[in-house]
Amino acid sequence: MAWTETLTDTRNRLRTLYKTIPNVTKGFGAMSKAVKEEGVLDLKTKEFIALGIAVAIRCEACIALHVEMLIKAGATRDEVADVLAMTIQMGGGPATMYAGKALECFDELSAA
Predict the structure, then answer these.
(1) Tens digit of pLDDT for each residue in 59-111?
(2) Alpha carbon 33 to chain centroid distance?
(3) Of the residues 11, 45, 69, 91, which has the maximum number of CB atoms within 10 A of its CB?
(4) How far apart are CA 110 and CA 65, in angstroms?
(5) Residue partners of 16: CB distance under 8 A and separation at least 6
């Protein structure tokens, strides 16, 4: 499946979830907004951390969403690759498999 399809499918599932449990998802959304807007780290750095976690826990939907945000934040392929290298160091073989997916996602979405 193309990464653009992963993003579309993920957003569709989230919309359904948001409608089903609006109080919970509004609370999560408020927390997400606060985390991204506050603190000493900039948004790009926070998204690098999120991508590393997404790869480490093997969440393809998370990878797609955070790669998309990193592209919007101006991340370069080399920066993403450096984050993936650190994730591999911490996560071993499984992280290596998902790091390849993350790099593929970056290449596809940044070419679009």
Answers:
(1) 999 999 999 999 999 999 999 999 999 999 999 999 999 999 999 999 999 99
(2) 15
(3) 91
(4) 13
(5) none
Surface-to-core class of residue 60, CB atoms within 10 Å of its CB (0-12 exposed, 13-18 middle, 19+ buried): middle
Structure token pair of residue 92: 């071993």
Q: Minimal CA–CA distance to 36: which of 6, 65, 12, 78?
A: 65
What is the rounded CA–CA span in Å between residue 63 and residue 41?
A: 20
Q: Is the dihedral of CA 35, 40, 44, 47 positive or negative?
A: negative
Q: What average pLDDT is seen over the chain?
A: 96
DSSP 44: H
One-letter amino acid of 90 = M
Residue 98 in tokens: 């998902």
